[in-house]
C-alpha cells in the first residue's frame, strides 16, 4: 500500500478521477494505491465464486456487485474498495447514491465484506475492523493467505490465516482458522469453505 498523492481529495474528486480504477481507495483524503497482484486477485475471485454459488443455492436476495465502493462516514474523505462485498438488494432503494453511482453509504445494505490481505495488512486488521464495525456490517472476513499480518493479529509462528469477524453490538468478535480447517460463518451457515479452497495453485 502506497500513499501516492500529496493533495487531499474529496469524495467527489475521487469518484471523478478514480471510480473506474480498481487500484485505489481513499483514506482521510489521501489516495492509496492498493498494489493488487495476480495471486491476490486469484484468492478474491475464488472467494467471490464460492460465496456466489452459496447465495444462488440458498435463494437469498443478496448479490456480489462487480464493482462497489463503500463511503462509510459523511464527515471523512474515506472511500473503501473491498475485495468482495455482499449487498442486500431489498434495501438498496434507500441508498442515496446507488441509482447513479455504485457507492454504498449505509451499513444495512452490506451483509458481508471480505478483504484479502496484501502489504497493507495493518489497515485490514485494525482500521477496517473499526470502520466496518461502526458501519454495522454483520460479518467481515480477513483472508491472510500468505500469513503477512503481525504476530499480534495472527499469532506465532505466522501462517496463512482466515479470520471471521462477527458483529456483537458495535464491535467484532473474531475467530481464526488455519489451513485444513472448516470455516464457520454465522452469516453463511451452510457454506463449506476452507482456506485451502481459495489459495492460488
Brief descriptors of the model:
201 residues, alpha+beta, tt1808, chain A, six-stranded mixed beta sheet, three-stranded antiparallel beta sheet, 4 helices, 11 strands, Uma2
Write the layout of secondary structure elements.
Layout: E1 2-3, H1 11-18, E2 24-27, E3 30-33, H2 38-57, E4 62-63, E5 69-70, E6 84-88, E7 103-104, E8 110-116, H3 121-135, E9 139-144, H4 151-154, E10 161-168, E11 171-177
Parallel strand pairs: 5-7, 8-9
Antiparallel strand pairs: 1-3, 2-3, 4-6, 6-8, 9-10, 10-11
Polypeptide structure, described:
With 201 residues, the protein is α+β, with helices and mostly antiparallel strands. It has a single domain (2-198), classed as tt1808, chain A (Alpha-Beta Complex), CATH 3.90.1570. It has helices spanning 11-18, 38-57, 121-135, 151-154, and strands spanning 2-3, 24-27, 30-33, 62-63, 69-70, 84-88, 103-104, 110-116, 139-144, 161-168, 171-177.
Amino acid at each position: 500500500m502506497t500513499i501516492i498523492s500529496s493533495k487531499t481529495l474529496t469524495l467527489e474528486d475521487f469518484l471523478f478521477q478514480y471510480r473506474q480504477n480498481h487500484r485505489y481507495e481513499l483514506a482521510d483524503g489521501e489516495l492509496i494505491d492498493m498494489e493488487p497482484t495476480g495471486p491476490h486477485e486469484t484468492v478474491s475471485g475464488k472467494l467471490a465464486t464460492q460465496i456466489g454459488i452459496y447465495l444462488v443455492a440458498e435463494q437469498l436476495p443478496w448479490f456480489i456487485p462487480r464493482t462497489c465502493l463503500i463511503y462509510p462516514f459523511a464527515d471523512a474523505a474515506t472511500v473503501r474498495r473491498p475485495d468482495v462485498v455482499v449487498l442486500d438488494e431489498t434495501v438498496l432503494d434507500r441508498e442515496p447514491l446507488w441509482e447513479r453511482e455504485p457507492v454504498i453509504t449505509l451499513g444495512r445494505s452490506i451483509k458481508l465484506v471480505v478483504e484479502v490481505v496484501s502489504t497493507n495488512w495493518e489497515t485490514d486488521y485494525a482500521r477496517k475492523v473499526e470502520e466496518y464495525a461502526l458501519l454495522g456490517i454483520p460479518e467481515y472476513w480477513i483472508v491472510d493467505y500468505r500469513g503477512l499480518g503481525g504476530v499480534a493479529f495472527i499469532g506465532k509462528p505466522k501462517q496463512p490465516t482466515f479470520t471471521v469477524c462477527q458483529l456483537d453490538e458495535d464491535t467484532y468478535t473474531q475467530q481464526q482458522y488455519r489451513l485444513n480447517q472448516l470455516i464457520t460463518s454465522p452469516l453463511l451457515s451452510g457454506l463449506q469453505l476452507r482456506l485451502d479452497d481459495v489459495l492460488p495453485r
